[in-house]
Amino acid sequence: MENKTKKNTFSSQFGFVMAAAGSAVGVGNLWRFPYLAAKDGGGLFLVVYLALVVTFGFTLLVSDIAIGRKTKKSAIYAYAEMNRKWRFLGVATFFVPVIIMTYYAVIGGWITKYFTVYLTGEANAAAEDGYFTSFISSPVSPVVFAMFFMGLTALIVYNGVEKGIEKVSKFIMPVLLIMVVGIAVFSLTLTHTDDSGITRNGLQGLQFYLTPNLEKMTVRRFLQILLDAMSQLFFSLSVSMGIMITYGTYVKPQVNLSKSVNQIEFFDTGVALLSGMMIIPAVYVFSGTEGMSAGPSLMFVSLPKIFHAMGKVGILVGVLFFLTAAFATLTSCISVLESIVANCMELFHASRRKVTLVLTVIYMAASAVITLGYSVFYLEVKLPNGTVGQLLDIMDYISNSVMMPFISLFSCILIGWIVGPKWISDEMESSGHTFKRKKLYNVMIKYIAPVLMLILALQSIGILDALLG
Ligand code: PHE
User: What is the whole-number distance in angstroms between the Cα of residue 26 and the centre of ligand 1?
Assistant: First the structure.
């Protein structure tokens, strides 16, 4: 066992930070963050989000990474080692990526499809009404793309921590950052005059994004913004799903964890803010404040129309945008699979290669089923949060809305009250570096985070709304 874990390490702090940032930066940054910012009062959402990043996000990220490095085990055995009676929490945590993996490659496949569409000059077609729906509801093409994406992910994980994950992340993440900055700057230079003669420009869009909108502010609305920011935050940081625990196991003892956590948060938040700068001004210029749509339709329906309205240069922007999105999704998808692989290697005492191969077969099948949830297996299920979903939405709802808040809540209780925050802070300081926000961490993990998580958990299963009437 010892030997096995020794071989699996990130070669450097930089490699670890790029891999962890690769997991954190995903579709959540690119489509969910800008949408929430536009919906939740622009600058106000940004302020709330930033305040949460350095307190709440920091606490959860520190916990996960320190648990991983200290126990040198993935979620199931890590929780068991913290306290034998709490193994169930490790098992629950393990099931989050198990569920997410069924649909993440599906989304990766959609993005890859759009990338190829822009690359092969079919951009006009993608801007037409109904293009996205007809693509995802066809029975073959989206399955092929999902398989491709799953295969690519598996290949990287198969090559191991340093030669696969770290190597790919060290290349992809800096390139991704450059592309996001480039598109964001371009977005600010746009101007457009619509049919009614109104001209809007990118800087006005930026103003709309950054200015806090306090209109019609009520306590209830503020609570909603807070909850939106909080759920976005821990989805975005990939915490409470065992992924950062697994990545933590690969970090060498001499690495400064405090600094790494800061860098990961900085990278993730930076890309989220830049995504807002890239998308909100562009949407604003071409469709005004009403143009921001939610979820996948922002990326696959609204943006192609906007790229189309940009004329020829829109094709290039489309290529770069979907390449960025594909990169972001790939490194996240890798982390999901890696965390399942790592747990299974410990569970079954099997080699990385064998486990990866078996899981690839299973998840190719699962991805196909989820993809076909828009055609052959189409169904409409009313979810407790009021939306109607297909298979993919159901999986997403179970993992992100139901399981993650509860896992976070119980983890805070376990660390804050049973094993004690010192167990974590000792690990943070074990490399000889100081743990700068130790006091903040202690207060957060014991008191504030559990209360916030409880509220979020109640809201996500629809109980909070019922209580508030
Ligand atoms: N953190 C990713 C994002 O912001 C989402 C993600 C969730 C990645 C689960 C991996 C696992 O999009």
Answer: 5
Pairing of strands 388-389, 191-193: unpaired
Written as one string, the DSSP assignment of 46-76 is HHHHHHHIIIIIHHHHHHHHHHHHHH-S-HH
- In which band, very low, low, confident or very high, does the pLDDT at 460 lie, cut at 50, 70 and 90? confident
Ligand 1-lining residues (CB < 6 angstroms): 23-24, 26-29, 100, 235-236, 238, 241, 243, 332, 335-336
Tens of pLDDT, residue by residue over 408-428, are 999 999 999 999 999 999 999
CA 196 to centroid of ligand 1, rounded, Å: 40
CA angle, residues 49, 18, 28, in degrees to nearest 5: 40
* Mean per-residue pLDDT of the chain: 93
Rounded Cα distance, 455 and 450, in Å: 9
Tell me the two tokens of residue 442: 């202690």
Whether 56 has a pLDDT exceeding 90, the answer reads yes
- Which residue type is seen at 285? V
Are 229 and 45 in contact by the 8 Å Cβ rule? The answer is yes
Distance 335 CA to ligand 1 centre (A): 9
- Give me the phi and psi of 155, to 5 degrees please: -60, -40
